[in-house]
Specification:
single chain; about 140 residues; alpha+beta; Dna Ligase, domain 1; three-stranded antiparallel β-sheet
Protein backbone atom coordinates (compact mmCIF):
# COMPACT_ATOMS: atom_id res chain seq x y z
CA UNK A 1 0.00 0.00 0.00
CA UNK A 2 1.32 3.48 -0.74
CA UNK A 3 1.90 5.54 2.38
CA UNK A 4 3.35 8.75 3.71
CA UNK A 5 5.01 9.42 7.06
CA UNK A 6 4.50 12.98 8.23
CA UNK A 7 3.02 15.21 10.92
CA UNK A 8 1.29 17.38 8.30
CA UNK A 9 -2.45 16.96 7.86
CA UNK A 10 -2.29 19.07 4.69
CA UNK A 11 0.35 16.77 3.18
CA UNK A 12 -1.72 13.66 3.94
CA UNK A 13 -4.87 15.19 2.43
CA UNK A 14 -3.01 16.42 -0.66
CA UNK A 15 -1.10 13.20 -1.33
CA UNK A 16 -3.69 10.57 -0.36
CA UNK A 17 -7.09 12.24 -0.25
CA UNK A 18 -9.91 10.62 1.72
CA UNK A 19 -10.64 8.21 3.25
CA UNK A 20 -7.30 7.35 4.92
CA UNK A 21 -6.07 5.06 7.66
CA UNK A 22 -3.64 6.54 10.20
CA UNK A 23 -1.09 4.69 12.36
CA UNK A 24 1.09 6.00 15.17
CA UNK A 25 4.80 5.83 14.43
CA UNK A 26 5.97 6.78 17.92
CA UNK A 27 6.87 4.04 20.40
CA UNK A 28 4.38 5.17 23.07
CA UNK A 29 1.09 4.54 21.25
CA UNK A 30 -0.26 1.03 20.75
CA UNK A 31 -3.85 1.91 19.91
CA UNK A 32 -4.03 0.34 16.49
CA UNK A 33 -5.20 2.75 13.85
CA UNK A 34 -7.78 5.42 13.12
CA UNK A 35 -9.63 6.11 9.92
CA UNK A 36 -10.53 9.55 8.63
CA UNK A 37 -13.16 10.36 6.02
CA UNK A 38 -12.68 14.14 6.14
CA UNK A 39 -10.23 16.82 7.24
CA UNK A 40 -11.73 17.26 10.73
CA UNK A 41 -11.39 13.54 11.50
CA UNK A 42 -7.87 13.59 10.06
CA UNK A 43 -6.82 16.45 12.36
CA UNK A 44 -8.20 14.54 15.36
CA UNK A 45 -6.43 11.31 14.38
CA UNK A 46 -3.06 12.97 13.73
CA UNK A 47 -3.29 14.97 16.96
CA UNK A 48 -4.16 11.88 19.01
CA UNK A 49 -1.79 9.34 17.44
CA UNK A 50 0.99 11.92 17.01
CA UNK A 51 0.76 12.96 20.68
CA UNK A 52 -0.26 16.56 19.99
CA UNK A 53 1.77 16.69 16.75
CA UNK A 54 5.06 15.78 18.52
CA UNK A 55 5.48 12.64 16.39
CA UNK A 56 4.81 11.79 12.78
CA UNK A 57 2.12 9.33 11.75
CA UNK A 58 1.92 6.87 8.88
CA UNK A 59 -1.03 7.44 6.54
CA UNK A 60 -2.35 5.11 3.84
CA UNK A 61 -5.30 5.37 1.49
CA UNK A 62 -8.28 3.42 2.76
CA UNK A 63 -9.50 1.51 -0.28
CA UNK A 64 -11.17 -1.49 1.35
CA UNK A 65 -12.41 -2.98 4.57
CA UNK A 66 -10.08 -2.95 7.59
CA UNK A 67 -9.77 -5.89 9.97
CA UNK A 68 -7.41 -6.89 12.75
CA UNK A 69 -6.25 -10.49 12.91
CA UNK A 70 -4.25 -12.17 15.69
CA UNK A 71 -1.18 -14.02 14.43
CA UNK A 72 0.58 -16.69 16.50
CA UNK A 73 3.86 -18.01 15.08
CA UNK A 74 2.78 -17.17 11.53
CA UNK A 75 -0.66 -18.73 11.83
CA UNK A 76 -4.06 -17.08 11.93
CA UNK A 77 -7.73 -17.98 11.61
CA UNK A 78 -8.34 -16.11 8.34
CA UNK A 79 -7.51 -17.99 5.13
CA UNK A 80 -6.98 -14.80 3.09
CA UNK A 81 -4.58 -13.43 5.70
CA UNK A 82 -2.66 -16.68 6.31
CA UNK A 83 0.05 -16.02 3.66
CA UNK A 84 0.61 -12.57 5.16
CA UNK A 85 0.89 -14.01 8.69
CA UNK A 86 3.46 -16.54 7.46
CA UNK A 87 5.49 -13.84 5.67
CA UNK A 88 5.46 -11.50 8.65
CA UNK A 89 6.64 -14.29 10.96
CA UNK A 90 9.33 -15.44 8.53
CA UNK A 91 10.63 -11.91 7.87
CA UNK A 92 10.38 -10.29 11.31
CA UNK A 93 10.38 -13.36 13.62
CA UNK A 94 7.57 -11.82 15.67
CA UNK A 95 5.78 -14.79 17.24
CA UNK A 96 2.69 -12.99 18.58
CA UNK A 97 1.21 -9.89 16.96
CA UNK A 98 -1.87 -8.24 15.50
CA UNK A 99 -2.02 -7.78 11.76
CA UNK A 100 -4.05 -4.86 10.46
CA UNK A 101 -5.36 -5.93 7.08
CA UNK A 102 -7.10 -4.08 4.25
CA UNK A 103 -9.27 -6.33 2.11
CA UNK A 104 -9.75 -4.90 -1.35
CA UNK A 105 -11.71 -6.74 -4.05
CA UNK A 106 -11.35 -10.06 -2.24
CA UNK A 107 -7.58 -9.74 -1.71
CA UNK A 108 -5.87 -9.11 1.65
CA UNK A 109 -3.06 -6.55 2.04
CA UNK A 110 -0.93 -5.90 5.11
CA UNK A 111 -1.63 -2.38 6.31
CA UNK A 112 0.16 -2.47 9.69
CA UNK A 113 1.13 -4.63 12.62
CA UNK A 114 1.59 -4.20 16.34
CA UNK A 115 2.11 -6.18 19.54
CA UNK A 116 -0.85 -7.80 21.24
CA UNK A 117 -1.62 -6.59 24.74
CA UNK A 118 -1.78 -9.50 27.18
CA UNK A 119 -5.24 -8.40 28.31
CA UNK A 120 -6.60 -9.04 24.79
CA UNK A 121 -5.60 -12.71 24.78
CA UNK A 122 -8.45 -15.07 25.61
CA UNK A 123 -8.12 -18.70 26.81
CA UNK A 124 -8.41 -20.02 23.24
CA UNK A 125 -5.49 -17.78 22.18
CA UNK A 126 -3.38 -19.02 25.09
CA UNK A 127 -4.09 -22.64 24.05
CA UNK A 128 -3.01 -21.89 20.47
CA UNK A 129 0.20 -20.24 21.66
CA UNK A 130 0.94 -23.14 24.05
CA UNK A 131 0.39 -25.65 21.26
CA UNK A 132 2.78 -23.81 18.93
CA UNK A 133 5.44 -23.49 21.63
CA UNK A 134 5.15 -27.22 22.36
CA UNK A 135 5.45 -28.09 18.66
CA UNK A 136 8.52 -25.87 18.29
CA UNK A 137 10.17 -27.34 21.37
CA UNK A 138 9.55 -30.87 20.06
CA UNK A 139 11.25 -29.87 16.78
CA UNK A 140 14.24 -28.50 18.72
CA UNK A 141 13.60 -24.93 17.60
CA UNK A 142 14.47 -22.14 19.98
CA UNK A 143 12.22 -19.16 20.41
CA UNK A 144 14.17 -15.92 20.51
CA UNK A 145 12.78 -13.06 22.45
Amino acid sequence: MPCTVTDSVKKIAAQLGFPVVIYAVNPFIHEGYRTANNQTALYRAVKSLGMNYKFAVCAQPLKGEMSTIKSFFGKCDDAQTQPIAESVYKLFQIPICQLHIQKIAGKAYLSGLQPIDKAVLDPVDVKKISKEVLLLSMQGDHISG
